[in-house]
Amino acid sequence: MIDIHIADELEKELCYKIREDVFTYWQKVPKKIDSDWLDETSTHVILYYSKIPVWTARIRIIDNNLKLERISILEQYRWKWLWKELMKFLIEYSKTKNIDWIVMNAQAYLQSFYEKFWFKKEGEIFKSSWIPHIRMYLSFK
Length: 141
Hints:
The chain is 31% helix and 40% strand. By secondary structure, the protein is of the alpha+beta class. 25% of the residues are buried.
């Protein structure tokens, strides 16, 4: 029923479509802000639910840290248990990369959710693309 994996070249287009639906249409972020040159060199994760692509995230490794970016899930699939599966996958994937930290700029309204997975906040809330965000991290040290 659930298939989560690293997206291949063809699936990257599906990842971009999910992001467009979430960020451009639902959250009104201009497409030129969501899509950037980092997409080409990043790893993309995709989740299928009943063979439908519904979730994606962009991953970059920077200075022995794994940065989660562009986490997006289609609105009709935002069930709590599905989010938990997504986070488990990302944390397990991170462990295979022998990194020190996972870092992300999370949308602020999701802070308490990420804290359930041992993420801690760092700093104060700031705006990115007019949306409140908070920097969060998970240490593997």
